[in-house]
Amino acid sequence: MQELHDAPLAPLTTLRLGGPATRLLTATTDDEVVAAVREADDSGTPLLLIGGGSNLVIGDKGFDGTALHLATRGFALDGTTLELAAGEVWTDAVARTVEAGLAGVECLAGIPGSAGATPVQNVGAYGQEVAGTITEVVAYDREARETVTLANADCAFSYRNSRFKAEPDRYVVLRVRFALEDADGLSGPIRYAETARALGVAPGDRVPLAAARDVVLKLRAGKGMVLDPEDHDTWSAGSFFTNPILTEEEFAAFRARVADRLGTAAEPPAYPAGEGRTKTSAAWLIDKAGFTKGYGTGPARISGKHTLALTNRGGATTEDLLALAREVVAGVHEAFGVTLVNEPVTVGVSLHP
Fold first, then answer.
1. What whole-number distance in Å separates Cα of residue 86 and Cα of residue 70?
2. Where is the protein situated, by its record's location annotation (predicted)?
């Protein structure tokens, strides 16, 4: 297991931000991961887990403790059953399932990060989320001090949430198992309207797997959501804010604010979110509050392709990024009475100081 001291963490994140870790370990096997976690727990050393670094905002002072980079590898396909090691590159894994003719995650193409992070965030996009295909998650339980296997029902999946996210200091994901579908080379039903329009089909139709993946990659690239080291518009953590989910009372008050600000004919995006709740669009809120694509003059700006992405234009600090994020949160709240919540995990800093 590789060990470095006073090691920079910025290169391990898609934002390229954050100070150094006191100690950085790189684990390439499950046993090394478990050993490193146990050592940190036994000594009372703070521990930071890093996979693909696509969902991390690390403070400029860095991390005073042990950062553990999960670089495990493993792609095992048995019929329609897929098992991925936590450190597998997610985009590569999706490409291999499409090549194998199996449906279930093809619309999650292009999402940066590692396989082990997908159940934590219940990663989703373009009408699919991993909760729909994950059967089991193998994890090290730091509380029980043993490796456990959690069935899908035990993972408490919900919109961009899970048991692993709710108990961030308890579980370390080691492996993720999926049940995919053999639909004779066709995708799962296309559920997302934008994807269906781009493919020229009706929602619910199936298309060749490669066509679904290629369209999703094209849509993501158009929004700066496919990583490109040469394009600072992709130096982000993806969507920086989650789509707000509002109660009936909150949504009624929100609609009234929209009417006051934009006119009575204006209708905000609204999607059923279960139990009398409605999901609206964070990107719409940001744009209508006056924070348009490319907003900002400093080294941290809103993406020129998508209002949900906050980007490092080169030379930014984490505080630069957070200052922009706080400005957006305050502006949206003032305009519409809705408080945006950050999607990436913050380390050593907070969006709400």
1. 7
2. Cytoplasm
Domain with CATH 3.90.78.10 in the chain: 232-347
Q: Does the active-site annotation cover 327?
A: no
pLDDT of residue 3: 96
pLDDT, tens digit (0-9, with 9 covering 90-100), for 33-63: 999 999 999 999 999 999 999 999 999 999 9
Annotated catalytic residue within 239, 255, 301, 303: 239
H helices present in the chain, as ranges: 30-43, 90-99, 118-121, 163-166, 193-199, 209-222, 248-262, 282-288, 318-336
Catalytic option among 83, 129, 136, 343: 343
Identify whether 334 is a catalytic site residue. Answer: no
DSSP annotation string for 233-270: GG-B-S--BPPPEE-HHHHHHHHHHHHHHH-TT-----
266-321 per-position pLDDT tens digit: 999 999 998 899 999 999 999 999 999 999 999 999 999 999 999 999 999 999 99
Provide CATH 3.30.465.10 ranges for the chain.
75-222
208: its two tokens: 């060749």
pTM to 2 decimal places: 0.90
Asked if the 232-347 domain carries CATH number 3.30.1330.10, the reply is: no
Domain 2-70 has CATH 3.30.43.10: yes
3-class SS at 60?
Answer: coil
Out of 160, 163, 220, 255, the active site residue is 160
Task: Identify the CATH number of the domain defined by range 75-222.
Answer: 3.30.465.10
Is 99 an annotated catalytic residue? Answer: no
Confidence (pLDDT) at 281: 96
